[in-house]
Amino acid sequence: MLTKTIKFPPLGDQRGHLVALEANKTVPFEIKRVYYLFGTKPGVSRGFHAHKDLKQVAIAVRGSCRFVLKDGKNEESIILSDSTTGLLIESAVWREMYDFSEDCVLLVLASEHYDEADYIRNYQEFLEFMNEKN
Ligand code: T46
């Protein structure tokens, strides 16, 4: 299963909603970096890369988008549209992102600092990396 989701317990009350994201608790790694994607233009797709080591959790805190995940053999698609659900993206998984709603704010929690050397941005190289790994 490539699409692993984490349900964050909603802690809201009559005043509104609250979700807590805690490293090594609700998020299964130490969080070293947080970034968010927003203002993605209609029809634009993003991603098209894998990470050698990085693990991430992505949450559509507003709006929606669709992830396609690939491991070289299997492919799965998932729509993120719920601010209490995170998509856990393990290392060595190719990701593509589509269908961003205009209001989409995609929050991403990352297990490592930014390192371009950890990216595989060519799909053929990704397949070779997976062959060597397995
Ligand atoms: C991912 C998906 C979900 C930085 O300088 N620091 C950062 O922390 C990040 C994430 C990116 N950048 C730079 C690298 C590029 O020059 O920002 C530019 C845009 O990044 P990229 O084209 O990789 O963006 P996406 O939306 O295709 O992918 C991003 C993350 O890079 C990636 O790890 O899994 O969001």
Could you describe the 3D structure shown?
Helix content is 8%, strand content 40%. The strands form two sheets. It has a five-stranded antiparallel sheet, with no helix packed on it. It has a five-stranded antiparallel sheet with strand order 6-5-8-3-10. The chain is globular and about 55 Å long. The model has no long low-confidence stretch (mean pLDDT 97). Bound molecules: dTDP-4-keto-6-deoxyglucose (T46). DTDP-4-keto-6-deoxyglucose (T46) binds next to strand 2, strand 3 and strand 4.
Global shape: globular
If you compute it from the alpha carbons, what radius of gyration comes out, rounded to the nearest whole angstrom? 15 Å
What's the CATH superfamily, by name?
Answer: Jelly Rolls
Counting DSSP H or I runs of 4 or more residues, the number of helices is 1
Straight-line distance between termini: 17 Å
How many distinct domains? 1
Report low-confidence residues grouped into runs of 5 or more.
none
Q: Residue-averaged pLDDT, rounded? A: 97
- As a percent range, the share of strand residues is 35-45%
Name the assembly state.
single chain
Strands, total number: 10
Can you name the CATH architecture? Sandwich
What is the N-to-C order of secondary-structure elements (H for helix, E for strand)? EEEEEEEEEEH
| CATH topology assignment | Jelly Rolls
The side-by-side strand order for the widest beta sheet comes to 1-7-4-9-2
Question: Which ligands occur here?
Answer: dTDP-4-keto-6-deoxyglucose
